[in-house]
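User: Could you go from structure to sequence for me? I need the amino acid at each position, not a summary. Structure tokens:
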């Protein structure tokens, strides 16, 4: 019970922090657009980089507390492991190249064509292990070795590096929260010490486990072992036909009219800035009642979509959306909340929202969503 209430406390605290962080990062973006002087741009870039780092820590804490509070929702689906590996390789290639390290991906033999698992969580574990391997290796190479044993139905992902290694007495505590092998490494390598804790707990949730063996000065091997219930056929993955690096998305231009409803001036300003930059007209309201009045008034200009904050004084987004739907309003409504849990998404959709996004506002995601819902 203590774990659970600590988890709930941390989950609440984390998303309370996400709202102001959203304003800080978003305004750093705006400032970045306004500035020309290279010295000033460097300062803003430092704010952004550290802000993003802080956000990564908060997301880690939120993840961990969700697991502790028993609120981690897994989306088990039939997925192709070779596609996941291809994705991961294209993401990590860049990082390895920055350090001039070869990143090798090898399949020891055929693997199941599809397995039932949560692809996002599996990717998260592998990205974390590979990220560490690259971080803690200066010379040599990093390898991802995949092997499947048909008899035991175990699918193993070995992440092998030739890096600094870990001394035997530290191996036991490696998976404890906030543990880093030594404080000097913290300073030169950064990180929160939460990654492996999350990986291990996620691997358990997926019905697997993570083991480690390591030799100081020689390198480490982290093995994720998943029990898969693969009944379909086996395939020999072809590395060359694995999916290529994602292409950068072209900038989307909108020509719509959007009502942004949020009680916080900062967030209204930010959303307005993003949407106007993409070419749309923006009107604003500061609570649900104002939004309803705007939509119902014959004097208001027509709008194509509503971006609705869910937590507001006077009338919140849930009540306003329910009421708008009751009055036969058919406009797409995007819910905006600081809560990153799956149950919140369902609550928003149940109130009548068309889609859902979380703070901190992600400019590209918001614009893509508006484009999708208005064309
Ligand atoms: P973080 O990397 O954020 O500090 P992790 O939980 O991912 O947190 O890792 C905890 C610690 O384990 C790291 O700080 C590092 O000391 C050690 N570690 C993890 N992976 C490796 C590796 N591949 N090689 C050497 N040390 C590692």
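Assistant: Here is the amino acid at each position, in order:
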């Amino acid at each position: 019970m203590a774990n659970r209430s600590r988890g709930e406390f941390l989950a609440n605290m984390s998303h309370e922090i996400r709202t102001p962080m959203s304003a800080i990062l978003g305004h750093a973006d705006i400032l970045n657009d306004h500035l020309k002087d290279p010295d000033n741009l460097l300062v803003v870039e430092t704010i952004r980089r550290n802000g993003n780092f802080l956000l990564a820590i908060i997301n880690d804490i939120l993840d961990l507390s969700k697991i502790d509070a028993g609120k981690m929702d897994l989306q088990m689906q039939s997925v192709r492991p070779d596609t996941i590996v291809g994705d991961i390789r294209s993401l990590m290639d860049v990082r390895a190249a920055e350090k001039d390290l070869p990143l090798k991906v090898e399949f020891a033999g055929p693997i199941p064509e599809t397995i039932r698992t949560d692809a996002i969580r599996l990717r998260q574990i592998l990205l974390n292990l590979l990220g560490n391997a690259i971080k803690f290796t200066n010379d040599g190479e990093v390898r991802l070795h995949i092997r499947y044993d048909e008899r035991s139905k175990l699918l193993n992902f070995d992440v092998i590096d030739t890096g600094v290694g870990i001394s035997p007495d530290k191996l036991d505590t490696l998976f404890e929260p906030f543990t880093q092998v030594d404080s000097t490494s913290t300073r030169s390598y950064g990180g929160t010490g939460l990654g492996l804790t999350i990986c291990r707990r996620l691997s358990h949730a997926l019905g697997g486990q993570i083991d480690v063996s390591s030799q100081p000065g020689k390198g480490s091997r982290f093995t994720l072992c998943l029990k898969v219930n693969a009944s379909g056929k086996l395939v020999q993955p072809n590395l060359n036909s694995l999916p290529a690096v994602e292409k950068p998305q072209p900038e989307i231009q909108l020509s719509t009219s959007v009502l942004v409803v949020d009680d916080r001036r900062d967030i209204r300003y930010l959303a307005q800035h993003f949407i106007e930059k993409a070419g749309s007209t923006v009107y604003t309201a500061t609570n649900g009642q104002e939004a309803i009045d705007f939509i119902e008034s014959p004097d208001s200009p027509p709008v194509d979509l509503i971006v609705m904050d869910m937590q507001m004084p006077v009338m919140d987004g849930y009540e306003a959306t329910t009421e708008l739907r009751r009055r036969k309003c058919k406009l797409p409504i995007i819910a905006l909340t600081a809560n990153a849990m799956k149950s919140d998404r369902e609550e928003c959709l149940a109130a009548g929202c068309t889609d859902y996004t979380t703070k901190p506002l992600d400019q590209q995601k918001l614009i893509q969503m508006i484009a999708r819902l208005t064309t």
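One structural detail worth keeping in mind: The domain at 257-373 is CATH 3.40.50.2300 (Rossmann fold).
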